[in-house]
Design a protein that fits this description.
about 35% helix
């Protein structure tokens, strides 16, 4: 049984998608053991409580140094014997000590088709603002493994979403969530939980 930690900073819609997929049997051989947020006001913590799983507040502002925070985050994951870390709208840079300890065991959902509109500063509505400003006709979402770069890890799954005339960043954001993020993030977790994903020479191989 894959033990999952979900790290989230905000409302937790992707967290809810994972919970629903577990309940619906779309994710098998896995369970969420903890939800960690850096934001005391994150509704994701309420979602965790309602779902009956632990919600933890681990915020950099509560530690004397960033290094102390990094160690606290790593220790929390190790103490709970986490197998897979899922970043679902987590707005804190994951420290290298965590990435190295969980090599190819941290995944992230990004609201564009990487390598488009990704990297430093590309998160949340900014991504959709950039896509609309560029005039792309297709955007989407990407699930990828996390390495020490920004959105540079091996890509697991992608799903395109049409950009429509008259879209606002908010409208496009919602469509990408509904048509891509909430679909491919649970799918990627299920593949990993059932041993279908491997990484070789920096590329992901999926056994269907």
């Amino acid at each position: 049984m894959l033990r999952i930690a979900v790290l989230v900073s905000g409302g937790g819609t992707n967290l809810q998608a994972i919970m629903d997929a577990i309940d619906d049997g779309k994710i098998t051989n896995a369970r969420i053991v903890t939800v960690i947020s850096n934001n005391a006001g994150a509704y994701a913590l309420e979602r965790a409580k309602n779902y009956g799983v632990e919600g933890l507040l681990i915020s950099p502002r509560d530690y004397p140094t960033r290094e102390d925070f990094n160690v606290a985050l790593l220790e929390a994951l190790l103490e709970r014997e986490v197998d897979l870390v899922v970043l679902a709208g987590y707005l804190v840079v994951v420290p290298p000590i965590v990435i190295r300890k969980f090599e190819n065991r941290i995944i992230n959902i990004h609201p564009s088709l990487i390598p488009s509109f990704c990297g430093t500063g590309c998160y949340g509505l900014h991504v959709h603002e950039m896509a609309l400003a560029r005039g792309v006709k297709v955007s989407g979402a990407t699930v990828h493994f996390v390495d020490e770069g920004t959105d540079t890890g091996p890509i697991i799954l992608q799903k395109p979403v049409e950009v429509k005339q008259g879209d606002t960043p908010e409208v496009l954001q919602r469509r990408i969530m509904e048509e891509a993020e909430w679909i491919i993030l649970p799918r990627a977790i299920n593949l990993i939980a059932n041993g279908k994903v491997s990484v070789k020479d920096g590329s992901v191989r999926i056994e269907e």
